[in-house]
Amino acid sequence: HVQLVESGGGSVQPGGSLRLSCEISLYIYSTNCMGWFRQAPGKEREGVASIYTGSRRTYYADSVKGRITISQDNAKNTVYLQMNSLKPEDSAAYYCAADCRGRGAWYELYEYKYWGQGTQVTVS
Fold it and tell me: Which residues of the chain carry a pLDDT beneath 50?
């Protein structure tokens, strides 16, 4: 049973920073990719960023480019989401996802096999 555990959410003022962590319960290279999604109240879940664990190729939503960075620590089986210059519109529950099926784009929810429970980010 694969588990993803997110941490690092919280409340921050506009312009501030947060770093989210997602630890996966297996060797990180056992999953070909990991991603971060977010969902604000009344809105659909949307892709924020993704990283392919072998090549470390990254993808970002246009709305976060230049402000958010996804990275991995192989020794800790953990993926991070460093968020800078946060805006109120970044407020959402953030979810970690893992293991791409290879059937769609990185931002498609159905592309990922495993999901975490989410961590709340509030910018106000």
Answer: none
